[in-house]
Records
---
Amino acid sequence: MAASGAGSPGRLVQYVVVRSDLVHKLSWPLGAVITQACHAATAAIHLHYGDPDTQRYLSELDSMHKVVLGAPDEAALSGLSESLTQAGVSHKLWIEQPENIPTCLALKPYPKETVQPLMRKFKLFK
């Protein structure tokens, strides 16, 4: 059964964008890459905890909606981060330490229709 409000205007979604080259070209273990996405998503929620959309997202704990997309490489991920910053979209670019490698980014929860146009060029992570 679909969550109440599924598909309705204003549905909140948290986008996570992960570098797909980490798995497919650099041979990172899938678990390590999933961990990066978890770090970014948690950090974005923490940084924007007081935001009304974040609070509403967290209040609907059993119906959270995330979309995980793939960026082909570091340049694409960094370019997306710059575009989001210029557009005023709150997000966290996760940089793995101590290696100092940008691995993924996560947006704070937003109404889907607000941010989906900015994410269209990225495909679902595979």
Note: The chain has five helices and six strands.
---
Amino acid sequence: MAMTDLLSAEDIKKAVGAFAAAESFNYKKFFEMVGLKKKSPEDVKKVFHILDKDQSGFIEEEELKFVLKGFTPEGRDLSDKETKALLAAGDKDGDGKIGADEFATMVAES
């Protein structure tokens, strides 16, 4: 399944473009702009599984760095600072990675 099966290609392009500058990433604004906030819990979980590149059931710090590329190949890599901030926001149980439920909570709270 491709990200564009769940989200509009135009919304993805706009959202990724809005955070093209280094150190500008804001996950709350991004999730809203990309249309994720309006999606059903099932669709949010599908997006999680697309971003979970190694299919471990978690999005680890290394995968978070490339989260924008998960939406579109044109996306930039997040900086270490942005990656750590995103991990801190999503990792509710402190295990150093984001599970599907934690991701869904992040989207819902955005």
Note: The chain has one domain: 3-109.
